[in-house]
Amino acid sequence: MSILARDGFVGDFCPEFDASKYRLGKLCKRGHDYSGDGRSLRHANGNACVQCGRDRVKQWKKDNPDKVKKSSALYNTRHREHRTEVARIYRQQNREMCRAYHKSLYWKNPEKGREKARYHRKTLKGKARRVRYRHERREMLKANRVPYTTEQMMQRLEDFGRCCAYCGDKLKLQGTGNDVFHWDHFQPLTKGGIDCITNLLPACSRCNINKSNHDPIEWYINFEFFSEARWMKIQSTLSISEACSARRQYQQLTLFGE
């Protein structure tokens, strides 16, 4: 709403503020024009410019990082439950933004991200989550499975030259690292995919874990290792027509072996 301040009427172009706490007054020495007509936002109980005060606090925090860190830690300790509840509500309201932020942090320092994941898996909550995931996945496989043989799996691996179907890196059949061999369900089981030979691709651990349950092409096209030739190879190997691929109808894969 528009505010009727002590110095006169503020038009609709002016950002809203609490008239019980602030007022519009004479332009401050630093020229903080709040309303766009040469007036600064000032405290109602005094004459100080609000923006000048904020700038001083910001500069003080920049000059005293150790004091700020110590003060924040003390506040968080004294108000742990409140801070936890505020953080929980924020994550619920901004789920996608938080997910994107944590994903960007992981790729900036993947080793640190893996270390945190290893630590979490050892906690009681982490162990419970892994058990629940295994149970859910086992039930999904029971409900959506077409039997296939080991020979078919080995042939699929050879079809891609023992390389990752997505990035093209040579696969390590054992050991650790980003290029360790995984089997990936092209159409994720959680999105209606079926555990069958025409939904399986050889992939490196990095691609398989990062792909998770995302739409294959929407995930793949965003990476620098995207290759049109490899994408065509995936479609031809899994018997996906161009029309089905364009409509994201991967569930129309041929269900039975080659």
Write the CATH fold name of the domain at 146-252.
DNA Binding (I), subunit A
**Share of helical residues:** 40-55%
Q: Tell me the major beta sheet.
A: 2 strands, antiparallel
Average pLDDT rating? 81
Q: Helix- and strand-based class?
A: mainly alpha
| Shape assignment | elongated
The H/E string reads EEEEHHHHHHHEEHHHH
Spatial separation of the terminal alpha carbons: 67 Å
Strand arrangement, major sheet? 1-2
- Per DSSP, what share of the residues sits in E-state strands of 2 or more residues? 5-15%
Characterization of the model:
- With 258 residues, the chain is mainly α.
- Among the domains are: 4-63, no CATH class; 146-252, DNA Binding (I), subunit A, CATH 1.10.30.
- Helices cover 49% and strands 9% of the residues.
- The strands form three sheets. A two-stranded antiparallel sheet has the order 1-2.
- Strand 1 and strand 2 form a beta hairpin.
Topology overview:
Blueprint lengths: L3 E2 L2 E2 L12 E5 L12 E5 L6 H14 L1 H14 L1 H14 L1 H14 L1 H13 L1 H20 L6 H10 L21 E5 L14 E5 H7 L4 H5 L7 H10 L4 H5 L12
Keyphrases for this structure?
two-stranded antiparallel sheet, two-stranded antiparallel ribbon, 258 residues, disordered C terminus, mainly alpha, 9% strand, DNA Binding (I), subunit A, 49% helix, disordered N terminus
